[in-house]
Specification:
globular, disordered N terminus, transmembrane, alpha+beta, six-stranded mixed beta sheet
Length: 298
């Protein structure tokens, strides 16, 4: 009987399969490292920020070649989400809805309800408030955090850490503007007891943003006009001294989809039509972070 060696398996001789396997393993390892990290008072500072940076993935899927005009779908600028998977999602902050509050551990239903409201506000401001998203004024968001975290997070927005800053707040790239319609939203939140006995709220929300286009007739389809993000964030309500007491963001992971890659690599959001190097036919299914291929083309 011939000796069987694992390296002879046909999958391992397929370069495409091997690349995908490496990507999946690296992604899963990053998530395991991040999930095992205990929150600290200076979560967003120092090495924790470096760890967070690798979790921001850009998901752009394989596409069709040929004539750019082939298969082009009309874009309705008055209803830019038509024809996308986000069309049936809720409008704006109506999609950021907390579940009914019930007691969690030693925390009463009233305390859980209060935590839900604070976290809901943080999600809305970070991802939907146009002062933050369009104008890049992050002070409305920072004011919601505990003082110690507030000062640490502020350093992310000094222009040197934009990739990490995208995990905290969504900001659009230079030269593009959001359309007048509200972004589309889906997702949810759930309360639990944290590792140190604190009350935590885990959130998982997807957002679809429509952008203005000077020549919508040249777009290949609504995916060119609509950019997607998904963020999972664990918030906690802590007690302590004046600097510690309040709302904290303890973990964060994110995904961009159907976006302009140069802007995404810098941590900013822009629609696919602003990146002429992208091929047509981008996937628009946000799926789960583990289902998307890592990295923009090239």
């Amino acid at each position: 009987m011939d000796e069987y060696r694992i390296e002879d398996h046909p999958d391992l001789r397929d370069p495409g399969w091997s690349r995908q396997a490496v990507r999946r393993a690296e992604r899963e390892a990053r998530w395991r490292r991040w999930r095992s990290r205990r929150p600290s008072r200076r979560f967003w500072a120092g090495s924790a920020i470096a760890a967070a940076a690798v979790l921001l993935a850009w998901a752009v899927f394989a596409t069709q070649g040929g004539d750019p005009a082939a298969g082009r779908r009309a874009v309705d600028v008055d209803d830019p989400f038509a024809g996308t998977s986000a069309a049936a999602w809720a409008d704006g902050e109506a999609g950021v809805v907390a579940p009914a509050a019930v007691p969690v551990g030693s925390f009463s239903a009233e305390e859980v309800a209060g935590a839900y409201e604070r976290v809901r506000r943080a999600v809305v401001v970070a991802r939907l408030d146009r002062r933050v998203v369009q104008d890049r004024d992050v002070e409305p968001l920072l004011s919601l955090f505990a003082p110690d975290l507030r000062e640490s997070v502020r350093t992310l927005f000094d222009g040197r850490n934009d990739g990490e800053a995208a995990l905290v707040a969504t900001r659009v790239a230079d030269g593009v503007r959001l359309a007048g319609v509200e972004p589309k939203v889906r997702g949810g939140m759930e309360a639990a007891v944290g590792p140190s006995g604190e009350l935590v709220v885990r959130t998982d929300y997807s957002f679809a943003y429509a952008f203005e286009a000077a020549r919508p007739e040249e777009l290949r389809g609504p995916e060119d006009l609509v950019a997607m993000t998904r963020f999972e964030v664990r918030y906690s309500l802590r007690e302590g001294g004046p600097g510690v007491a309040g709302l904290w963001a303890d973990e964060s992971a994110g995904l961009f989809d159907s976006v302009a890659c140069p802007a995404a690599r810098r941590g900013f959001l822009a629609p696919a039509f602003t990146d002429p190097s992208l091929p047509p036919g981008l996937s628009f299914d946000v799926g789960s972070p583990s289902s998307a291929s890592d990295g923009c083309p090239g």
